[in-house]
Amino acid sequence: MSQFGNHDDRPTKTVELSRSEVTHVVMQIDINGQGRLFGGRLMEWIDEVGGMTAMRHSTHEVITASVDNLTFKAEARLNDMVVMIGKVTHVGNSSMEVRVDSYRENEIGMRTPINRAYLTYVAVTPEGKPIRVPYGLEVNGPGEEAEWQGAEKRQKLRLNRRKEAF
């Protein structure tokens, strides 16, 4: 393992072990007046995938603590398949950052990126109290290292915004 990732006595899981992938077909109820997928519906699906990914990693219930980045790159329309892939990028004491990439997939399996989001989840007890994530994250390769470093930067920015009430 590299200098990034788990730095304590917890066992680790790889990024791939907690990966989640979900596909939705855009239905009539999911589209706005312009025939495009509602951004809010996509955000709901992203939170669903992110939560599953965090639950897989932590083996606990989770709550959504924040959405740090949500960038829309393209649209999805009626009958499009939307594929979302969640990966853990960082693990703290009780929190985990998850990256969710969303794609429009055509009939031959070609994917066009439509969104990337970073969300933070907190592992909780059945009573809703934060609990330590029992697994650290095994970070392998430059891509996963860059994600870990990016997560730490986003965490610092979040803390600064909270301090400044911004």
From TrEMBL:
It comes from the Bacteria. SUPFAM superfamilies: Thioesterase/thiol ester dehydrase-isomerase (SSF54637). Residues 16-127 form the HotDog ACOT-type domain. CDD domains: BFIT_BACH. Gene3D superfamilies: Hotdog Thioesterase. GO terms for molecular function: long-chain fatty acyl-CoA hydrolase activity. The keyword Iron does not apply. The keyword Secreted does not apply. Pfam families: 4HBT. One of its GO terms (cellular component) is cytoplasm. This is Acyl-CoA thioesterase. Transmembrane segments: none annotated. Belongs to the acyl coenzyme A hydrolase family. GO terms for biological process: acyl-CoA metabolic process. Keywords: Hydrolase.
